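> Could you send the Antitoxin component YwqK of the YwqJK toxin-antitoxin module prediction when you get a chance?

Sure thing. Input:
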Amino acid sequence: MNSKNLLLLFLMTVSHAVFPQKDKKAEMADPDSTGVMPDNLLPTTAPILLFDDHSKSDKKKAEKKKIKKNIYYGERTKKGYTKQTVRDQTQYQIFNYTTQNRESDPYIRDIHWYDARDKIIRTKEFDPSRGFLLHGPYSKEIDEVVLEKGNFFFGTKHGTWLTFDNKSILLDKLHYSEGWPKDSKVTYYNREERKIEKLTPIEYELMEGNFFHFHETGQVAVTGEYHFGEKVGLWTEYWNTKNNKIIRKREIQYQEIPFSKDFRPYIRAEWDPEGNLVYRKEGLSSN
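Output:
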């Protein structure tokens, strides 16, 4: 099995393990009742190098080939646009989208998709029953002046993205690889064996996006989110069970909005190595 297939297998399994589906009645009644994640959702292999040089080289060669109209990265697409008037200015978003669905990378925070019902572009909670993933060229314009342009790959920013002011002066130039800013930092326990320790998303020289820390066994150790360099939302730590089970260890609640001066982080709940709830912050409802 090649590295690309191993990565796909890992992403599919860990996406459920890290963000489990809460479909059990007991968990719906009390999500803190157990810290144990379903055994069958354990990752089957340790994470491998995400930014593989060979795969990047193959993609570049494929992108340089002449392609038919409205076919991008090997996928046939359709064109669409949104229109919105704000303060007497008309804003257009012109994009391509694919009718093909693809399993979302759990490491990527923003998945861009066209909501065909509301006729807007969203970046969260992709629902294939009501929309389509953006795929191919994209531009944002106000009164025929281009403010932003780039490409999407199954809902993720890909390649070079440019932003301009209202006088068409270039403000910024960023580079992405399937949703990951190219400046993102990856640290390893062992680089030759491709044992990843931490995945830290970096954008505009600040931490921005979903953060992952792994145990040396390859199991998830910590998950959380950064926004403008600040920790936000719920951060979760996991016991190192050496791939026998995935068990939550502790949840820490951070500010929902960055730079909230009056907010102090607090431990929301804790579980022992067997998954038994040992602490829950006073005042939190179990329903």
